[in-house]
Amino acid sequence: MFIKKIFHKFFDLDTKKDRLFTKELKTKNIEILYDKEFQASINEVKDYTLLDTSRLANLWILSKLSNPKGAMIEIGAYKGGGSLHISNSNPDRKMYICDSFKGFERIDENLDDLFKITDFKEATEQGVRALFNNKNRSFEIISGFFPQSCSNKKLQPISFAHMDVDVYKATKESLY
After folding, report:
1. Angle between helical axes of 81-89 and 36-45 (0-180°, round to 10)
2. Confidence of residue 7 (pLDDT cuts 50, 70, 90)
3. Domains of the chain
4. How far is CA 56 from CA 45, 108, 118, 127, in A?
């Protein structure tokens, strides 16, 4: 409950209606929305991600600004839509896709009240692999709980990381 209260206060969320009050969005001033490659990627991944358009735009732009010699990684890939979107923005770079494909390892009731232990269990490694198989991309799916899942892997230098792990324990361990 504590995290939910902070979240609502920080984002000025109306708890009665569960909606975010924001400044009016004037899309004509957001150039990325008119980029044909970005639009095509959004259409391709929309059924495989929970990320909204603004977050996908941030990933697109930030990954393009990162060192092009480094690999990219997504920690907490769910159905792979975010990973594919990042890869679409930089198709010549190696993409590491990390997920347990088992949902959460543990939920702390005092810290992780936005999620249930049963969330995210429907994603599969085979489903993510299917998104990438016909793309002619360099990618590696690493199944298991990060960072332990990568402890015996020799990863290329990484210059862009998207960490989407949702709960306290996973966030702490991923940053450690």
Report:
1. 160
2. very low
3. 2-175 (3.40.50.150)
4. 10, 28, 25, 20
